[in-house]
Amino acid sequence: MFQDGGGRRTAGDAGQLVRKRGCGVPVDVSWLWTISALIMNAHITASQLVRILRLGSFFSRGCTVTGSRNCSNLIQNNGFELPRRQNNFLHRSSNCLGLTSVHLQFSERMHQISSEAEHVNNCARETADSSVESTLSVSSSTEGTSSQSGELGPEGSSTEWKNMSLAERRASWKQFHSELQQCTSPSDVLDLYEQSIITWKHISYSLMTIWETTKRMSDDQKRYERKLMFEHLVFEKICRQALKEAPLMSCNDLVYSLFAVVKIGVPQQSRLVHTLLRVTQERLNEFDVRAVSVLSSCLRNMAKSKNVTALRAGLRLLVEQHLANINTVMGLQTVMRCIGKESPLPLKKKLESKALSLLNEFTLPNSQYMFITLADMGYRSYPLLEACSNRIIDNIHSIPFWRLVHILQSCKDLQYRNPALLSASGNHVASMLTIWEVKQLSFLLVLFSDLGFRHIELMDGFAQIVLSRSKSMTFKDVLSTLRVFSQLNHRPAEEQVEQFLQILTDLFQSHLTKCSPLELLRGVYYLCLMDHFPRVALSQLFQEDILNELQSSANYNQESNKQMLQYIKLCMELENPSGAPPEVARITDPLPPSITVKMAMKEAMEATLGDSRLYRLGTVLRNIHFIDFEIALDQERKKVVPYPQDDEIGHDPNVQRVAVVCAPGSAFCLGTVHPRERLALKIRHLKVLGYHVLLISEYEFGKLSEAERVEFFKSAIFGE
């Protein structure tokens, strides 16, 4: 039953009336009876019902159906809602995710994810021929078809397209696809789009091609091309058509369109982006693994909003629901990458257990990709990482350089330090040192430095390359090299040290006119750590305007800048007094470090010496260097003497000041007791001040028993 323009209920067969929006003009809607009959058919499938309703809604745009209580009740009982018009496109207000954060109602009936046959059909994007077949296979029968299939039905087509035969459509699509591959800029794509007969499949491919033509451009060229694109009249047309056709797109075309518009710089708060996000929410349960992967890649870099948050939560719900059905390693890794770092820990553990159950099926590429997957997921799984590391070590010579770099980058992100894996990687690169460029080697060494790993053979080989190929080094390469060698406290062979440092100094100072104050500070700091003092760079650094900028409260790196300046000042005062900063150079004095001696070490020291008056506890030199214990040792008698209150040992040549320094494991290079960066600088400064330094690793000391700790101190202090 329907209401006519006067509000009276009428009954009839083909002459039912609806009220046109905004007026009382009757409109013929005889097609509604056909839909009603199909709805009442007990054998109709859910996908058939959705498609019929979309077709019917398309033909009746601008009409409002009222009084269709039987149809509405039946639809709601089966978990569907009638399409409604919103933002000038068809919209269903229900949300299949059940997420209230976006204020959308939902049906409790959860649809099943697409079958494997549908997944194979969706992968037709891989080649042009298969794309044409899946795109143009329009079925004229009444069999149920998934909304995820690659069809181009009449609902998304222009009039010319609908009037074409199947052969003409295939020929038209092949021509469009061929010409699209020849486009080299967004403007080329838009010009082609304007000349073509358009369906929503054309929209998706055009948007993706726009992104693909710009992603390899330089930043300046990319900005210029995007400016031309946004000013192009056809760009507004393609956006409007994407907005209109979004509910009718296949799932793959929908997510590729969303991915493309975000990547090409369409504002994320725009109506187009939020429309695509909302339609994606509605159809998320229809997505296969490929569509979910593209969607997760898109959401990873999007700003937070209600729609984005809803989709991220929906992806996690979908993953948890279908985890048991995932039987392939690649499919599991795709799902793991999709859930992101913000997913709950229980879900991450479930995925870890699933991955461990498939461990015997891991190939070498699977093992490599697992590092990247775990880094994307933000989860450090030691069992998985150890198993994959062993596989990579056994096949290290089969791994390309940049793939190896990605693995090391993932290790850095996960804070996973495996000495065996790093040693194998370093040996592999060092064995073919001459084939790598300076840029590649410096990038790899920076990752080693961030992981605290010192590969002696590789660093010595790289020092030889610096000596022979210094002219090919850029300013960034020079800074990276200084950073690596200073942080790992590595010096080349004794006969090459001065030449190596002088070459790096000359290269660094040749770029002083172009470098920023922060780059200047870092370069000088790295050189000072290596006991080398560049006069020209120091003179420029100590200029008042540069010091004020570096120590300004508006500077994001203010605290780290102050610390580097304080260490540079101390190095100049202790090791190079002639080049000390002038009095006018205002460098903020450091605050004493708030460090305390570990109680276990204090007890072991008292047990060793027998009297607390024989050592000084927790001394701070120059408000920078912290010494755990100071001892006055009579070297001839092998006996500790009371430390004088006036801090003066006297002129007895047999009495030696001993500084006991306890350092955490992170202050040493990985797997060794070789001191890094500031610990090495502290030892050097203490030796300049006349101390004999006893260096103790807190990690190794903590593994000893009480008796072993006492024996360790006796051996270290008295040489017993």
Number of strands: 12
Poorly predicted runs are 1-31, 37-47, 54-157
Q: Taking Cα atoms only, what radius of gyration do you get, to the nearest Å?
A: 35 Å
| Distance N to C terminus | 105 Å
Instruction: Calculate the mean pLDDT score and round it.
Output: 76
Helix fraction bin: 40-55%
Number of helices: 33
Structural class: alpha+beta
Instruction: Give the overall shape, derived from the CA principal axes.
Output: elongated
**Which band does the percent of strand residues land in?**
5-15%
| Oligomeric state | single chain
Biggest β-sheet description = 5 strands, mixed
Task: Summarize this structure as a short list of keywords or feature phrases.
three-stranded antiparallel sheet, five-stranded mixed sheet, alpha+beta
Question: What does this entry look like structurally?
Answer:
- With 720 residues, the protein is of the alpha+beta class.
- Among the domains are: 81 residues, no CATH class; 203 residues, no CATH class; 120 residues.
- 54% of the residues lie in helices and 8% in strands.
- The chain has 33 helices and 12 strands.
- The strands form 4 sheets. Strands 8, 9, 10, 11 and 12 form a 5-stranded mixed beta sheet that branches. It has a 3-stranded antiparallel beta sheet with strand order 4-3-5, with no helix packed on it. A two-stranded antiparallel ribbon has the order 1-2.
- Helix 31 links the parallel strand 11 and strand 12.
- Helix 5 packs antiparallel against helix 7.
- The longest helix has 18 residues.
- The radius of gyration is 35 Å and the shape is elongated.
- It starts with a strand and ends with a helix.
- 33% of the residues are buried.
